[in-house]
């Protein structure tokens, strides 16, 4: 085959190739070996899928619905280029009885549009907005594999890892942030065997490049000099993106920026002293020295005084999680939560924000009773000893492993198991 990323070489019989692939798929699921003529990109994907624990009879799960989905889509960078994607792909999908789909960098489908009957059929396998179609969730498929390998790819018939997806053919290409090169998601075309053609792969690749060009045009001119983003979740030293530079801050400077980003009106020196230091003997001179060093690091103009304040809005990952929680977008909030706020910080005000944010998200997760969201928290470093989360997980996913971990945790903490309610 001339191009390993194209599903069928010229002149190949789709029906015969589908039969051969079904036999190869059965061989792999039974024995773990990949026979010819399975393409290397598919063989590698099958192996990754198996290592991730995907079963051939599984199905996609819907992670974002209703308010969660709407809030997450509205904030996603690809929302800005959806009108262009619809213009380029919409009529092709509708006229050819195909679907256009756009996923995020985690393989979650954000938009699925196109022919109504085809959409209805696809819905039966949860190929719907809000469903996770990453390789780790549902195995080999074009949008999930495209973001996994960061390449345009076709997946034909029984090349799909999950059997219920094998009647379909799809082609997808990743879309990148034109400033950073980071994968934002992928554009996909899904339908019948007719898509197993080099033209469909070239088509989605062209749409992805057009989307990247549009994002570049929509971005501010120059090195994003007026854009300031603070990442402080899950790390002891925050990162600040400012003026096209990424700055790693010391712990104290991280604490100061977290607090000033939260108080755009500014804080007096006394307020900052109380917020940052438990030790009441720390003098204003110490704080002024820290702020002088921070001002030199940030460059001119961003940090003002009397009161101490930031002269431009700084978007923090803490604020993103709080906004999503405020509108009930629990799944989207959990996705944005990279861990506790500056976990090593002992600054009183930072510790309060850290505790409130974690408690608010935990409470929302327990109330939501979503087993996947609870499992994600329970298996994270900050959740592995979280008794309430493990109890909530055991209530909705009472597997032997979960029950065993819960019993061990209750024993370690010296806590009795709650009494069972007779049913």
TrEMBL record:
<dbReference type="InterPro" id="IPR001867">
    <property type="entry name" value="OmpR/PhoB-type_DNA-bd"/>
</dbReference>
<dbReference type="InterPro" id="IPR029016">
    <property type="entry name" value="GAF-like_dom_sf"/>
</dbReference>
<feature type="domain" description="OmpR/PhoB-type">
    <location>
        <begin position="244"/>
        <end position="310"/>
    </location>
</feature>
<keyword id="KW-0805">Transcription regulation</keyword>
<dbReference type="InterPro" id="IPR003018">
    <property type="entry name" value="GAF"/>
</dbReference>
<keyword id="KW-0804">Transcription</keyword>
<dbReference type="InterPro" id="IPR036388">
    <property type="entry name" value="WH-like_DNA-bd_sf"/>
</dbReference>
<keyword id="KW-0238">DNA-binding</keyword>
<dbReference type="Pfam" id="PF01590">
    <property type="entry name" value="GAF"/>
</dbReference>
<protein>
    <submittedName>
        <fullName>GAF domain-containing protein</fullName>
    </submittedName>
</protein>
<dbReference type="InterPro" id="IPR016032">
    <property type="entry name" value="Sig_transdc_resp-reg_C-effctor"/>
</dbReference>
